[in-house]
Every structure is written in structure tokens, then in C-alpha cells.
């Protein structure tokens, strides 16, 4: 029962944060999605059942910020979904920073007066563990990304590496900002 109370409390606090946001604030809800396993549209049985397939790391999230109307004082709470993608399967602090860097650069363009960035994740920064946590917005982004990729495979498209997955998602997930993280960007 304590776990349920934690989830309820966390959801209340997030709601309060969203309601009290100013033009100087943003909320970044982030999580690692389950790795995507590359697929062929027509796999032979040995590949389908047990063949060694490449995995791709998906780091998903939703950004919340206030968008102020310049013609009056009205503000609208906006959200943007994103997915950073890499072949690197580590979930360590260095890779987390590599995933966050392009998102933070994007946030600076969306919230130019940014002073306070609030981060929300479901676990320790070293791995974002999935121990008995509620499903959140980043999980929905991850599910959408995988569903779209699997649908493209069902339609005859092979998704065998990161570049193909990124191109597929850019073409078919217009509501999700997709960013590829190359090994050269990992410090």
C-alpha cells in the first residue's frame, strides 16, 4: 500500500508543479524505454527464434513548458515528446548526459527565459530502474515509437540499425522529436 501512496503523492506533486509553472520553468519527464530489437520484415525461423539481433537504446521523455501569447498575458501549457536513440546499450551517467544534451539545447530554444528545469524520472539516475513504478508519459512515447516501428516492419520495411530506425520514426512519428546519438557524441 505504501507504493500506491508514493505514486499518488508523486502524481499530485507533478500536477501542482505544472499548475504553478511560469515562463521561467520547464518540467522534463524522462525514462529509458525497453531496448528496441532490430527486425526484418521476412525473417527465417532461425533468425526469428533465437538469432542474435542488434538492440537499440531508446531514451524517451516529455517536456512541459508554458508558451506565453505575446499579444496578451495568456499562457498555455505545452508539451513535446522526444526519443533519443543510440546503439550504445549502457545506461550509465555518461550516456544519460549524452541523451540529455540535445534535449537541453532544444529546450533553450523553446524556453529562452529558462531559469528552473525540473527533472522527473522513475528511478536512480544511474539506470532509471523499473521497480514497481507507475507508467508515465515517457512510457507512452516508448510504446508509440516501438508500435510505429513494428508496424513498418509488418508493412515490409526492414529495421536493422539505428539510422534506419531514426529515418522510419522521423517519417512516421511526426509528433515525436527523434534524435540519434552517435558514439562520437558520448564524452
Walk me through what this model shows.
The protein is built from 5 helices and 5 strands, in the order H-E-H-E-E-H-E-H-H-E. It is α/β, with parallel strands linked by helices and 187 residues long. It has one domain (2-185). It has a 5-stranded mixed sheet, with helices on both faces. Strand 2 (55-68) and strand 3 form a beta hairpin. Helix 4 (137-154) crosses helix 5 (162-172). The longest helix has 18 residues, at 2-19. The chain is globular, with a radius of gyration of 18 Å. The protein starts with a helix and ends in a 7-residue tail after the last strand. The model has no long low-confidence stretch (mean pLDDT 87).
Which overall shape is indicated by the principal axes computed on the Cα atoms? Answer: globular
Provide the residue-averaged pLDDT. 87
User: Structural class of the helix and strand makeup?
Assistant: alpha/beta
Task: Sketch the major β-sheet.
Answer: 5 strands, mixed
- Oligomeric form of this entry? single chain
Strand line-up across the major sheet: 4-1-2-3-5
Q: Determine the N-to-C terminus distance.
A: 42 Å
Give the domain tally.
1
Helix content: 25-40%
Number of helices: 5
Total beta strand runs: 5
SSE topology string: HEHEEHEHHE
- Strand-residue fraction? 25-35%
Low-confidence stretches: none
From the alpha carbons, calculate the radius of gyration and give it in angstroms: 18 Å
Amino acid at each position: 500500500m505504501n507504493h500506491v501512496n508514493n505514486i499518488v503523492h508523486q502524481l499530485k506533486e507533478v500536477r501542482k508543479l505544472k499548475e504553478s509553472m511560469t515562463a521561467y520553468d520547464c518540467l522534463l519527464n524522462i525514462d529509458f524505454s525497453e531496448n528496441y530489437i532490430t527486425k526484418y520484415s521476412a525473417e527465417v525461423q532461425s533468425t526469428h527464434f533465437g538469432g542474435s539481433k542488434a538492440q537499440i537504446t531508446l531514451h524517451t521523455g516529455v517536456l512541459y513548458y508554458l508558451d506565453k501569447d505575446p499579444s496578451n498575458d495568456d499562457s498555455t501549457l505545452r508539451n513535446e515528446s522526444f526519443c533519443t536513440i543510440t546503439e550504445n546499450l549502457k545506461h550509465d551517467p555518461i550516456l544519460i548526459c549524452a541523451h540529455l544534451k540535445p534535449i537541453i539545447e532544444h529546450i533553450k530554444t523553446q524556453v529562452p527565459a529558462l531559469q528552473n528545469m525540473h527533472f522527473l524520472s522513475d528511478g536512480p539516475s544511474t539506470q532509471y530502474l523499473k521497480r514497481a513504478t507507475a507508467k508515465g508519459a515517457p512510457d507512452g512515447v516508448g510504446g508509440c515509437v516501438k508500435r510505429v516501428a513494428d508496424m513498418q516492419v509488418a508493412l515490409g520495411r526492414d529495421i536493422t540499425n539505428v539510422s534506419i530506425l531514426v529515418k522510419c520514426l522521423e517519417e512516421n512519428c511526426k509528433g515525436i522529436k527523434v534524435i540519434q546519438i552517435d558514439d562520437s557524441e558520448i564524452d
